[in-house]
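Collaborator request, handled under Task 6.
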Amino acid sequence: MEVPLNPLGRKEIHRLESTLLFGTLFRPEVLDLIKDPAERLTWVDSLAVAAGALAREKAGMTTSEIARELGRTEQTIRKHLKGESKAGQLVRETYELIKGGKLENVLTSLEECREYREKYENLKRELERIKDEIEKLLK
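Structure tokens returned to the collaborator:
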């Protein structure tokens, strides 16, 4: 799966953003950080904002454009982009891992998850279709 390091357009921004988010979330040290259910939502939100900010910065957007698009203050966006927040540091490290080609196992796992989800959804639809046919036959 090709990840655009300097995205052009919305589709590529979203691809980089989601790769940064999932790549960061599945790093072992981050999984340890989000074990506490009381802090999990805060961590995931911060990581999502940091990933969104970095992807948009790499696409050439200004801090104010990023803040407006993500619904956060410019100060928050700057903290993430400068690595002054833990989430910003982690996402930037993930970017460097992607850039260095060292995140392939996570990306491959994500692609496999998508494929299995699609297969699951197809099987679920097929099961519903078969149930409907059986009900018609029994009437």
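The cover message to the collaborator said: "Residues 10-101 form one domain. The two ends are 49 Å apart (CA to CA). Please let us know whether this matches your experimental observations."
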